Amino acid sequence: MAALEHASLIKPLDPEAGIALAIGYGALGKTRLSKDLLMSHAVSGRADEMNLLAVAAGLEAIDEPTLAMEACRRAGVLAPESAEVHYQMGHYASSCDYPLSVIEALIRHAIHLEPSNVHYRIGLASLLVRLERRREALQAIGALIPSHLGDVTCKCCLKRIANLYFDCEEFEIARRVAQRLDELEGRSAGVVRRHP
Fold first, then answer.
1. Are 25 and 33 in contact (CB under 8 A)?
2. Which residues contact 37 (CB under 8 A, 6 or more apart)?
3. How far apart are CA 128 and CA 48, in angstroms?
4. pLDDT category, 1, cuts 50, 70, 90?
5. DSSP 176
6. 61-113, pLDDT tens digit by residue?
7. C-alpha–C-alpha distance, residues 103 and 118, integer Å
8. How many whole angstroms separate alpha carbon 58 and alpha carbon 88?
9. Which entry of 8, 54, 119, 120 is 20 to 30 Å from 153 by CA?
10. What dihedral angle (degrees, nearest 10) is formed by the CA atoms of 54, 95, 43, 111?
11. pLDDT at 190 over 70
12. CA 44 to CA 109: how far, in whole Å?
């Protein structure tokens, strides 16, 4: 980080480096400076949608969900057909206590734009489970599970999926999801054993 600070004194940093520096300040507890720098990138007109998503993540990390939502909204203006932007907007909308119908609509739009993204479908299924709409949740992921199970590496997501299938009495798929979870836990346990 010191190198980035020094470089910024010599000449202005490109957006990626400037955003990384701002996020670094946030990680060091300099939240006011981090917020000011991140927002300057958000409104500069130089940031593309990926930069703006990084700004949003940095703002979320310093507990500024409303500003994160604004950065994400700006990304949506630049890239209205980006599934990732819509999915992230759903995430920030949730952090800002938007109505669940808005969050669901944003996630569903992300899935419409990228129907084979298993992570978006898991996000929607998780939301639907919270709303006690388990059968709809099952339909949301049913198009990709179990065929894309290998793409899921989040243990919490796998536990949620296994529980959903178990609750809906789809025991064979629940078993396959549990096997995938065991496989991942075995790998992480193996890593721990190799690196004491």
1. yes
2. 18, 21, 22, 25
3. 32
4. low
5. H
6. 999 999 999 999 999 999 999 999 999 999 999 999 999 999 999 999 999 99
7. 17
8. 13
9. 54
10. 60
11. no
12. 28
Length of the chain: 196
CB–CB of 57/34 below 8 Å?
no
Which amino acid is residue 173, in one-letter code? I
Structure tokens at 24: 């670094």
Tokens linked to 175: 């078993």
State how far Cα 119 lies from the chain centre: 9
CA 74 – CA 69 distance, rounded (Å) = 9
* Cis peptide preceding 196, ω within 30 of 0: no
Q: What are the φ/ψ torsions at residue 62 (nearest 5 degrees)?
A: -105, 20
Q: What's the rounded Cα separation, in Å, for the pair 132 and 137?
A: 9
What pLDDT, in 10s, does the model give residues 6-51? 445 455 678 898 999 999 999 999 999 999 999 999 999 989 999 9
